[in-house]
Amino acid sequence: MKDIRINIVDKTYQADGRSHKAIAGLDLTIQRNEFVCLVGPSGCGKTSLLNIVAGLDQQFQGQIQLGDTQNAAHIGYVFQEPRLLPWYTVRRNIELVCSGQPPAALIDALLVDMQLDAVQQQYPERLSLGMQRRVAIIRAFAINPVLLLMDEPFVSLDAPTARQIRTLLYSLWRQRPHTVLFVTHDLREAISLADRLIFLSAAPMQVVADIPVNLSRDEREQPAQIEAFRHHLLDNFPAIAALL
Ligand SMILES: Nc1ncnc2c1ncn2[C@@H]1O[C@H](COP(=O)(O)OP(=O)(O)OP(=O)(O)O)[C@@H](O)[C@H]1O
Question: Which one of the record's GO molecular function terms can you name (predicted)?
């Protein structure tokens, strides 16, 4: 897949007789297999952006170029809430998104990687929120996505659970590289995952700063290194403090 080009000239919502300009003049290029974290204040338009990239919202001015893959079947989307179907088992929830024959071996491997193989025949209501979020991540990986969109997938999890799932996600991504757009409010989380951080302004949303993260995998696992990088960012890019 070639680079992804996102050019949103204007995204305006009309509601209750009023208009709200959510995004204006946003221009981004994401390289193949890059892991990009999008960081911006609440309500600035991050979900709106992901919905446009996913093709779920076509009411905007601009253009999205997904390289060779204009096909939504190759886009995995992990929403803010797990959105599992309660009347299907964990395994069935994952299989449902696969077109044609579900890739049994891949699903088996993902269930093991995410430590969910023992509960695959259970129904979502029997799972903790952290487990449901892991199922949602597997469901996105099961289609072997070329592009993975993740909208604050670890929000409202306790810190140890979020850390555990983050580590699993990072190792899955390293095993099966693909382009990721990951929305988060958590700068430490963003630093631990991303090749590149894109800081976004309040509405109308625009790019404030676009910063590479040059940390090794070992460094990303050391809280002191993450903290040092965070201080480096806040010292050298004062404008981003207001966005967190
Ligand atoms: N369907 C809609 N109709 C009208 N306004 C909307 C609609 N969806 C979103 N908005 C508005 O657009 C703005 C951006 O919303 P969006 O959900 O994209 O922000 P966000 O950055 O993802 O927020 P958060 O970080 O809180 O999840 C908000 O002001 C929101 O109220």
Answer: ATP hydrolysis activity
